[in-house]
Design a protein that fits this description.
Largest sheet: 34 strands, mixed
Number of strands: 76
Helix content: under 10%
Structural class: mainly beta
Strand content: over 45%
């Protein structure tokens, strides 16, 4: 960041205010008057960093004194032990907050953010020293005068200044970049000046001219130089602003009013400066120049209610903030605002200002809008910040924003992917995302909830990862196709739209709630629910079946529908709540390796077959379970029956199977609520359309019996009941044993 030539330092402080012209661009500037160190005083800004910190000079008791300004702290003096004995001016500030300060005597200091400072040791015999900029490493550029010799230098606090080599009689340094290159001017004998560029420690390179003398005023990290050069016109010799680069050389960038001088240039290639009045002696207005838009009067970009004109722009930072001199006689800060429109015609870098309106790099100050006339791939490969981002439009154009190299897009007020837009890549979005278009899940991380009203899909042939809390709303779709895999990880997820798995695999970490109206459709796919599914909507399985891992807990109104002769496997617990439905349609099968709970009032519909290998219990301690299909208890199944009350009161678990009931595995009988069975009580545990098989064991250790009583299971496979009797005589024991050995297929009435 650089300061203007000192001959212009305070020349504009007494000029009068003038009106502003409305902007024709979506991006405009907000103007802040930075005030002065004393009430009613004057001030001028010379330096600006990427954090919005401004430095310069303000008139105090007739002398210019250095200041620093921040949005949080306002304007404060930067002076050290010398203030207010002599004048001082702050000429540059880096992003670490180090400030270069020059004094009216041969003294240059570098101030740290806490107020400590170090002095740059200028050569012995120096009668004047000026500082003009400071880079990220804390190295300053400037000029020293020793007798009749004026020489450019660089230096750091506490070290001797390095005089820059020159073959000329006089040289001045006006800017320094991160790489240590220095821009300035040199004079041959008593002839013309010419702009020069010193590479770090190298000899100066002449940058040429536009016909007369040329002066370098600013330098960015890309090696571009901005300044002014003399041009002969019919009205005489005038100054014309230029931008120089290694590829194009020195190029005149236009004139504002009656001439122009460029004083600042940022890494996006935006240059700022001022135009002259008719006398060619005083600034008449500030300008902004970009390669795409050309030279613009900054005052046309300022809101009408700004209250003053900007007469000179002295520096511009990476985000397009500009400092300058207002017609109030005080320093002003201009901050871009509004909608920043994408200008690229064939895709390109999101991070490059040349692809955006007026050359602005997206920043926290602007709402970036990406509209295209066709398909474009826009790559964000370095961290970027926006106030908000709109990607795509309601109609026309198909922009895709791809986050690469793990880059982060910081969006203070979020990202909206419109119907024609696509968001993808392997980076991170810090901010809420509303998707009305497409999220192509490659390996995206979103700090906030993804509100999906469009599509979430995977890249064909590649596994997809989406780290976020997902809110898939009514219009939203999450699709996993054949041979595809999508992993969604977050704390919790909500679905009221459609989640579709066709032949692929969807893995969800974080609890998934399928709300009323939400649909989960599976056909030949796998669904892994690492933290379970709470189903209040519908889970439907088609012809090719499904594999479902993780807890499925279904509430009132929820439906789990297995149809189309599908074969589906559930590997973990399934809880079908009151008022919900589990349907296994004709020809379909469902295999349960986990425990299954059929709550009272839960409907098990359809004439298909359920295979239980983990466990089944019905009711609600105790209760009734009805199944319209067929049931097979596998050899590893455990059927739990709670018993209490009396047979007449039906205070025991009962399973009614309309189709075939095949017994197998274990039957466990337990007392409910401290119940102790009495002699003569009979408990009708099962009803069926047809039955076969037998339990491999009956565990009645948990069923309390009154003293002297035994359990009679002789009719368990006859009519589904067990009874409590007194201890029988030996002959009775033989009959009871025979009842336990019955394995028969019988038909009985249904309840």
């Amino acid at each position: 960041m650089t300061r203007p030539a000192r001959s212009f330092a305070l020349s504009i402080l007494a000029l009068a205010a003038a009106g502003c012209v409305a902007s024709a661009h979506a991006v405009t500037y907000q103007l802040v008057d930075l005030g002065a160190l004393v009430p009613g005083g004057a001030s001028a800004a010379y330096g600006l960093n990427n954090r919005g910190q401004v430095v310069g000079g303000s008139v105090v008791a007739g002398r210019e004194q250095a200041f620093s300004w921040t949005a949080a702290g306002g304007m404060v003096g930067v002076h050290g032990a010398v203030y207010p004995l002599s004048g001082s001016v702050a000429t540059g500030v880096n992003d670490a907050g180090q400030i270069a300060v020059a004094y009216g005597n041969p003294l240059v200091r570098i101030f740290e953010p806490g107020g400590a400072f170090a002095t740059v040791a200028v050569p012995a015999g120096t009668v004047y020293a000026d500082a003009t900029g400071i880079n990220a490493a804390g190295r300053v550029s400037g000029t020293v005068a020793t007798g009749t010799l004026v020489t450019a230098f660089t230096g750091t606090g506490g070290a001797a200044a390095l005089l820059l080599p020159t073959t000329d009689t006089e040289s001045t340094a006006t800017a320094i970049n991160t790489g240590g290159a220095v821009a300035g001017s040199a004079r041959t004998g008593i002839g013309a000046y010419h702009a020069v560029l010193w590479s770090q420690g190298g000899t100066p390179q002449s940058l040429g001219s536009l016909g007369g003398s040329s002066f370098a005023q600013a330098l960015n990290d890309r090696g571009q130089v901005a300044g002014s050069a003399e041009v002969a016109t019919a009205a005489g010799t005038v100054q014309r602003a230029f931008v120089w680069s290694a590829g194009s050389g020195m190029v005149a960038i236009g004139s504002l009013h009656h001439g122009s001088v460029a004083l600042g240039i940022n890494d996006a290639g935006q240059a700022v400066g001022f135009g002259f009045d008719t006398s060619y002696s005083a600034p008449s207005g500030a300008f902004l120049w970009t390669e795409r838009a050309g030279l613009l009067d900054i005052n046309t970009l300022i809101a009408r209610d700004a209250g003053q004109r900007v007469l000179k722009a002295t520096a511009i930072n990476a985000w397009g903030q500009v400092v300058g001199a207002g017609s109030s006689g005080r320093a002003v800060l201009l901050t871009p605002t509004g909608d920043l429109a994408w200008q690229g015609s064939a895709g390109g870098s999101f991070n490059e200002g040349r692809n955006w309106e007026l050359g602005f790099v997206p920043s926290s100050f602007v709402d970036a809008q990406v509209y295209t006339t066709g398909a474009q791939v826009i790559t964000l490969d370095r961290d970027a910040t926006v106030n908000s981002l709109g990607l795509g439009s309601a109609a026309g154009g198909r922009p895709m924003l791809a986050l690469r190299n793990g880059a982060t897009l910081n969006a203070t007020y979020g990202v909206t992917v419109r119907s024609t837009g696509t968001l993808t890549g392997d980076g991170r979005v810090a901010g809420a995302v509303v998707n009305q278009g497409t999220v192509l899940a490659s390996n995206l991380h979103m700090d906030c909830t993804l509100i999906n009203q469009g599509r979430v899909i995977t890249v064909a042939g590649e596994p997809g990862r989406l780290a976020t809390d997902l809110d898939n709303q009514a219009a939203g779709q999450v699709r996993v196709g054949s041979a595809e895999r999508l992993v969604i990880s977050g704390a919790s997820h909500h679905n009221s739209g459609v989640i579709e798995v066709r032949g692929g695999e969807l893995e969800v970490s974080g609890a998934l709630a399928n709300a009323v109206g939400g649909r989960v459709l599976i056909n030949g796919g796998s669904l892994r629910l690492n933290d379970g599914l709470a189903n209040g909507g519908e889970v439907s399985v088609g012809f090719d079946g499904a594999e479902i891992f993780g807890l499925v807990a279904q509430g009132a109104g929820g439906r789990l529908v297995l149809s189309g002769r599908s074969n589906s496997t559930f590997y973990d617990a399934v809880d079908i709540g009151t008022g919900s439905e589990l349907r296994v349609s004709a020809g379909a099968t469902a295999l349960f390796f986990g425990t299954v709970q059929q709550r009272s009032g839960a409907q098990f519909t359809g004439t298909g077959t359920k295979f239980y290998e983990g466990g089944l219990s019905v009711g609600a301690s105790p209760g009734l379970g009805r199944d319209e299909g067929s049931v097979v208890f596998g050899s590893s199944n455990l059927y739990l029956a709670e018993i209490g009350g009396t047979a007449a009161g039906s205070a025991f678990d009962k399973l009614v199977v309309a189709g075939d009931l095949h017994f197998g595995g274990r039957l466990k009988l337990v007392s409910w609520a401290g119940f102790a069975a009495q002699a003569g009580q009979r408990f009708d545990l099962f009803d069926w359309g047809s039955a076969g098989g037998s339990f491999s064991s009956i565990d009645a250790s948990g069923l309390e019996l009154a003293d002297g009583l035994v359990l009679d299971t002789s009719r368990l496979y006859v009519d589904g009941s067990i009874a409590v009797t007194s201890v029988p005589e030996p002959a009775g024991w033989a009959l009871a044993l025979a009842g336990l050995l019955v394995v028969a297929r019988v038909t009985r009435r249904r309840c």
